[in-house]
Amino acid sequence: MRRNKPGTRQADLWAWDIEDVSNMQGPLAVQEYIQELIRNDPSNVQKICEPPKDVDINVWQYEHLRQFILELNLLATQLKGVCTSQTCPKMKAADDWLYLCAAHKTPQECSAIDYMIHNLDQSTSILQNIKNYNSRVSIPQSAVKNLAPIVRRLYRLFTHTYYNHRQAFLDFEKEMYLCSRFTEYALKFDMMAPKLLTIPQSELNIKENN
């Protein structure tokens, strides 16, 4: 049975083979499959981002973005007490690039941590808007255009952390491989131009597909 029994040791949690996504049922099948891939080997970002032939490509991109937001909330939580309105009163990354927060009626300056929280909340609101995303099994092509702007804004959370809180970034990446996976996703689905991905590849942990 595919469940963790009471008393299961931490090392043995989710110790089952990955199920073929074509055999999975229900509206959350793609989300569950992506999460299984991540639990199985978070370092194999190429395999995690590679869309199965039986999955709608629009749904695949959408569900990955929802998963990124879930995990980026963990990064924002880890920065608590490190990235504050006092230490980082403006949202900056490499070369002192200053980002205005677009989560307001008129873009404005926010502290870095507020920028992160505002954009995570705004991105969540967009992806949960039933007007554009009223199904988890079919995403209209017209709604896919909303994904790339979200990706570009969310990448700034990584760049701020990398250039201003380097050790926190490295510790989080060593465990989660989140920026590595996000970078693979952004390139694979043409969500961002390569020149905008400013975190050095040498700092990422991308494992070649087997």
Structure commentary:
The chain has 210 residues and is mainly α. It has a single domain (28-203), classed as MOB kinase activator (Butyryl-CoA Dehydrogenase, subunit A, domain 3, Up-down Bundle), CATH 1.20.140. Helix content is 47%, strand content 0%. The chain contains eight helices and no strands. It holds the Pfam family Mob1_phocein. InterPro entries: MOB_kinase_act_fam (IPR005301), MOB_kinase_act_sf (IPR036703).
In short:
Keywords: Kinase, Transferase. By secondary structure, this protein is an all-alpha fold.
State the main characteristics:
210 residues; Butyryl-CoA Dehydrogenase, subunit A, domain 3; 8 helices; 47% helix; mainly alpha
Please tally the helical runs, counting DSSP H or I stretches of 4 or more residues.
8
| Rg result | 18 Å
Using the alpha-carbon principal axes, give the shape.
globular
CATH hierarchy class name: Mainly Alpha
CATH superfamily: MOB kinase activator
CATH fold topology: Butyryl-CoA Dehydrogenase, subunit A, domain 3
Q: Could you say how many structural domains there are in total?
A: 1
The total count of strands amounts to 0
- Strand content is under 5%
Span of the ends, CA to CA: 27 Å
Reported for the largest beta sheet, the result is: none
Supply the helix-strand structural class: mainly alpha
Average pLDDT rating? 88
Q: How would you spell out the order of helices and strands?
A: HHHHHHHH
Low-confidence runs of at least 5 consecutive residues:
none
Helix content: 40-55%
CATH architecture heading: Up-down Bundle
Keywords: Kinase, Transferase
Protein name: Mps one binder kinase activator-like protein
InterPro entries: MOB_kinase_act_fam, MOB_kinase_act_sf
Pfam families: Mob1_phocein
